[in-house]
């Protein structure tokens, strides 16, 4: 078996201060081979990159989260773009729309998302998309982008719908457009039957897994801080829903994540370079 890839863990956040390296070691012990550490702004992109430079199986991203959209200006935009020259930065993210919390206005979110999508198309880099209570506006912006950008991706996935919370129809729409769907560890919660129904109907080739650490611990760890070692619980739930072995889910979702982010095969998430 090849192990598991946590495609979304905010290990540079204060919740992991002084514990990120140990969390990465616990993940390795649990069979996690790679971790993608998404950014929400410039500072967190740099924090993620620092972790990625220390650990062979850790990768960073750069981008502005919808919550931080009001802070994006010309200067920060060009600094984000410069980070894509770093080989350890593998995606534009996380970006998107969140009309639930509204930490930035709708206008600010739409403008920041547009700016990030333009960068992603120019660089042919996959996007990590956050969408909450904004599926209609998301489709209006993301679907035309996908139809335009697909030519530059040479068959690779265009991005991932992270912490997916939409309907089966939404999921299928984005799979058809060339995205993959990320199954979060909260899929194990009793109240998530709707999400389990969606996941059970999607092809395994379209799925990756994530923790979104430190948020949303799986049912078996309820009340604790989430961390990458627990991503195996999302894989276990998919294995049950699709009636296949856990190892097989690890293999398929890891292959999907490698294709998405263009990752080489690594054996040990904790290792240094060279
Ligand atoms: Zn996130």
Describe this structure in words.
Helices cover 41% and strands 16% of the residues. The protein is globular, with a radius of gyration of 17 Å. Strand 2 (32-37), helix 2 and strand 3 (58-62) form a beta-alpha-beta unit. The two termini are 25 Å apart. The model has no long low-confidence stretch (mean pLDDT 95). Helix 4 (106-123) runs parallel beside helix 5, helix 7 (193-201) crosses helix 8 (231-242) and helix 8 (231-242) packs across helix 9 (246-261). It has helices at residues 20-29, 42-54, 74-83, 106-123, 135-149, 168-177, 193-201, 231-242, 246-261, and strands at residues 4-6, 32-37, 58-62, 89-98, 127-132, 159-161, 179-184, 207-210. The protein contains nine helices and eight strands. It has an eight-stranded parallel β-sheet with strand order 1-2-3-4-5-6-7-8. The protein is an alpha/beta fold and 274 residues long. Zinc ion is lined by residues 8, 10, 38, 94, 212.
Largest beta-sheet details:
8 strands, parallel
Helix content: 40-55%
Kindly report how far apart the N and C termini lie. Answer: 25 Å
Bound molecules: zinc ion
Order of neighbouring strands in the sheet with most strands? 1-2-3-4-5-6-7-8
Taken as a percent bin, the fraction of beta residues is 15-25%
What is the count of DSSP helices, taking H or I runs of 4+ residues? 9
Question: What's the mean pLDDT score?
Answer: 95
Q: Can you count the beta strands? A: 8
Poorly predicted regions are none
Based on Cα principal axes, name the global outline: globular
Q: What structural category do the secondary elements indicate?
A: alpha/beta
Radius of gyration (Å): 17 Å
Helix and strand string, N-terminal first?
A: EHEHEHEHEHEHEHEHH
User: What oligomeric assembly is this protein in?
Assistant: single chain
């Amino acid at each position: 078996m090849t192990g598991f890839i946590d495609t979304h863990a905010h290990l540079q956040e204060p919740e992991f201060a002084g514990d990120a390296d140990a969390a990465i070691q616990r993940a390795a012990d649990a069979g996690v081979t790679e971790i993608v550490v998404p950014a929400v702004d410039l500072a967190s992109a740099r924090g993620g990159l620092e972790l990625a430079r220390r650990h062979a199986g850790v990768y960073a991203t750069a981008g502005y989260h919808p919550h931080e959209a009001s802070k994006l200006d010309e200067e920060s935009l060009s600094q984000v773009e410069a980070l894509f020259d770093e080989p350890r930065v593998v995606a534009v993210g996380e970006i998107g729309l969140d009309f639930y919390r509204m930490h930035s206005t709708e206008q600010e979110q739409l403008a920041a998302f547009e700016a990030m999508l333009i960068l992603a198309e120019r660089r042919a880099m996959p996007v990590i998309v956050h969408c909450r209570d904004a599926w209609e506006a998301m489709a209006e912006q993301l679907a035309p982008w996908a139809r335009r950008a697909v030519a530059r991706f040479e068959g690779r996935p265009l991005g991932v719908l992270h912490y997916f919370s939409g309907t089966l129809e939404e999921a299928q729409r984005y799979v058809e457009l060339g995205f993959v769907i990320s199954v979060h560890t909260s899929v194990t919660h009793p109240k998530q039957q709707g999400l389990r129904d969606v996941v059970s109907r999607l092809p395994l080739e379209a799925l990756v897994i994530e923790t979104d650490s430190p948020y949303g611990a799986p049912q078996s760890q309820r009340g604790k801080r989430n961390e990458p070692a627990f991503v195996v619980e999302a894989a276990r739930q998919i294995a049950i829903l699709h009636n296949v072995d856990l190892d097989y889910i690890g293999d398929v979702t890891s292959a999907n994540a490698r294709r998405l982010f263009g990752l080489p095969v690594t054996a040990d998430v904790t290792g240094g370079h060279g």
